Amino acid sequence: GIDDLFARHPRIVRDLGLDAPALLPVLLDGLMWRSRTIEDGQRRVIYFVKHLVLDADGSFSKAIEWITDLKDPTIVCHPVVCLITDVVWNRVAYGLFLYGKLWFLLTLLVFVLAQSVLFRVGVDDGGERNPPFGTRL
Questions:
Q1: What are phi and psi of 4, to 5 degrees?
Q2: Which residues, given as ranges, of the chain have pLDDT below 70?
Q3: What span, in angstroms and rounded, lies between the C-alpha atoms of 111 and 119?
């Protein structure tokens, strides 16, 4: 099955993308199963994406990197690729991204306080210049 395919060919996504790009959507279609029955206007879909997210060692797979290197919008818009990128973004990258932006906003706030607010307070009332100096470090 799928486990045997990815165990024997761990770089199959890269190889198909470089050597036979027309077969990559066929592989991605094979990684999802759609039910033939429709319930309440919806069809059940099961995605087999374990090997596209993790490699055999349990570390992050390079499948997303290989797919983006192809620069093919039809492959990037495939439902399997959309699912794995959404999973990686929502569960891994989103928190780190927000943490980085929060750190940037905090340093921007300190910069604005040091350059304008605390500088003028220290000059106008003849007080000490230690608070502006401390924020500039």
A1: -65, -40
A2: 117-137
A3: 11
Residue with tokens 């706030």: 109
Give this prediction's pTM.
0.71
What's the pLDDT at 117? 66
The beta strands (E) that lie in 1-137 are given as: 32-39, 42-47
Locate 45 and state its tokens: 């879909």
Instruction: Please choose, from the candidates 27, 129, 109, 54, the residue with its C-alpha nearest in 3D space to the C-alpha of residue 64.
Output: 54
3-state secondary structure of 41: coil
Element (DSSP H or E) covering residue 102: helix 94-112
- The kind and range of the H/E element at 79 are helix 79-88
State residue 133's pLDDT score.
Answer: 55
Q: What is the pLDDT of residue 46?
A: 92
* Residues forming a β-bridge with 45: 34
Burial group, residue 46, by CB count within 10 angstroms (0-12, 13-18, 19+) = exposed
